[in-house]
Amino acid sequence: MYARRRFALLKSLLEYVGIESDRIHFTWISSAEAGKFQEKAKEIVEKVRKLGPAKKLVKDIRPKN
Amino acid sequence: MLKEYTEQIREVAKRLLKDKVVDCVIGYRKGTVPMLDAPYIAYTEEEADNLIWSSFCVSNLAKFLIGRKGKSAIVAQGCISRSIVNLINENQVKRENVYIIGVWSPGMVDRRKVLEKFYDKEILEVEEDGDELIVKGKDFEGKEFEERISKNEVKRDNCFTCMHRNAVIYDEFVGEKGEETGGGNIDNVAAPWEKLSFDERWEAFRETFGSCIRCYACRNVCPLCYCSVCFVDESKPQWCGKTQDEADIFTFHILRAFHCAGRCVDCGACESACPMGIKVRRLTSKLEKDVRELYGYVPGLEIGAKPPLAVYRPDDPENFITP
Amino acid sequence: MVKVLKKDQIESFLSKLKENYELYGPKKKGFEVEWAKLDGSLLFDFKNSSLSPKSFFFPQTECMMHFKNDPNDPEGMIMKPEPELDSKRILFNIRPCDAKAFSLLDKVFMKDEASLDVYWKDKRDKTILIGLGCNNPSPTCFCLSVGCGPFSEEGLDVLAVDLGDRVLFKGITERGKEIISSLDDAEESDIKNAEELKKNAESKITRKVELDNILSKEILEVYEIPLWDRIHETCLNCGACTFYCPTCHCFDIQDEVQGDYGRRVRNWDTCMSWLFTQHASGHNPRGTKKDRVRQRFMHKFKYIPFRLNGEIGCVGCGRCIVRCPVNIDVRDVVNQMNQQLK
Question: Considering only alpha carbons, which residue of chain B is nearest residue C318?
Answer without folding.
Answer: B33
